[in-house]
Specification:
By secondary structure, the protein is an alpha/beta fold. It has twelve helices and 15 strands. It folds into two domains: 235 residues, Rossmann fold (3-Layer(aba) Sandwich), CATH 3.40.50.970; 114 residues, Rossmann fold (3-Layer(aba) Sandwich), CATH 3.40.50.920. The termini are far apart.
């Protein structure tokens, strides 16, 4: 069976993509706007010999995933902001234990229980590790269902390569969108990874292994953190992904991630057709932040407009990356009857910036 076209909700696309790549275990607790993932896997995972399991809480979800990861099997947990909050201790444990897994956070408005409308307010939690201590997770922010499919095998590979949780970040609006997607035949890439030198599968025929993420020996703790930081530096160097357009002559650059990135791409394309010197850059990885992509912004650029479904989070990484090279401005919108950032507002902001120049 070759490639086939489907019209599916993006949460379902995520679930189908991971199933086709060989993920056989999914843990989740119902929460809007992430419940569609578990509904889909509950129906379809058993068809390929897998299982969707709903424990009693998000705390149980992440601990089930941790237990599975110790055996070398790569599973997934999906949730939204309040559930992601509750999972942070378990995610920190998985990161410290250097175990692979997939995570999905379909972001909604916070803090606290907030609202079920989509947002991009989990950026800080996603890109700074989330829990206490020094650690980072590879974070992918797809902007379409097709990009989810394309990123899934990459994310699985990086999970095993770096022995780390890997996080997908989508806003709740995108999570509920239906899109046409091209899916290839199933190819189980998960079972191809050799985990025999670290997985916990019983000690028959080999020496015992101990899984220790804390110690009363201060030197042991220091060595663990140094190891995690060295891993983070490798990820920063090797795993930056971004999309760019029109940077070579841009006077003003627009940057956004996820679904707002699609809106801003079209706004920039329309502006360039009218002769406006606009550029566009969309981070695909949020950690590592694509500093190499932002290095392509010319010195002649006068301003970067950061567009987000929050009130100023990724803008801080843009400011750190650009280090005063040009002015950084921000347009953010969250919640209400119209949760998305508005194309007409982005156009208005850009027209004002260009007129001021």
């Amino acid at each position: 069976m070759g490639d086939s076209a489907f019209f599916m909700k993006n949460s379902e696309i995520f679930a189908e993509a991971m199933i086709r790549c060989g993920v056989r275990y999914h843990f989740a607790y119902p929460i809007t706007p992430a419940s569609d993932v578990m509904k889909y896997t509950a129906v379809h995972l058993h068809e390929v010999g897998g299982r969707m399991f709903q424990p009693e809480s998000e705390l149980a979800v992440i601990n089930c995933l941790a237990g599975l990861a110790t055996t070398g099997k790569l599973g997934c947990a999906s949730t939204s902001g309040p559930g992601f909050d509750l999972m942070q201790e378990g995610i920190g444990f998985i990161a410290a234990a250097e175990l692979p897994c997939l995570l999905l956070d379909n972001m909604r408005v916070g803090p606290g229980d907030g609202d079920i409308i989509g947002s991009q307010q989990d950026y800080f939690m996603a890109t700074r590790g989330g829990g206490h201590g020094d650690y980072y997770l590879p974070v992918y922010a797809p902007s379409s269902g097709q990009e989810i499919v394309e990123l899934m095998p990459i994310a699985i590979d990086r999970g095993y390569k770096y022995r780390s949780p890997v996080l997908f970040l989508m806003d709740g609006v995108m999570a509920h969108m239906n899109e046409t997607v091209i899916l290839s035949s199933a190819k189980d890439i998960v079972s191809a990874y050799d985990t025999s030198d670290w997985a916990y599968t019983g000690a028959k025929g080999r020496g015992k292994r101990a899984l220790i993420t804390g110690s009363y020996s201060h030197s042991d703790g220091e060595e663990m953190v140094k190891r995690l930081m060295a891993k983070a530096e490798k990820i920063k160097e090797n795993e930056q992904l971004w999309e760019e357009n029109g940077l070579e002559d841009a006077e003003v650059v627009v940057t956004a991630f996820g679904l707002p990135g699609r809106i801003c791409r079209e706004v920039v394309q329309e502006g360039r057709k009218k002769g406006q010197k606009l550029g566009f850059i969309r981070p695909i990885t949020l950690f590592p932040f694509p500093e190499k992509g932002f290095a392509n912004i010319p010195k002649s650029t006068k301003e970067i407009l950061v567009v987000e479904m929050n009130y100023g989070q990724m803008v801080q990484d843009v400011r750190l990356t650009m280090n005063g090279a040009c002015k950084i401005s921000h347009y953010g919108h969250v919640g209400g009857n119209q949760p998305m950032v508005k194309a007409k507002e982005v156009r208005r902001r850009l027209d004002e910036i260009l007129e001021d120049d």
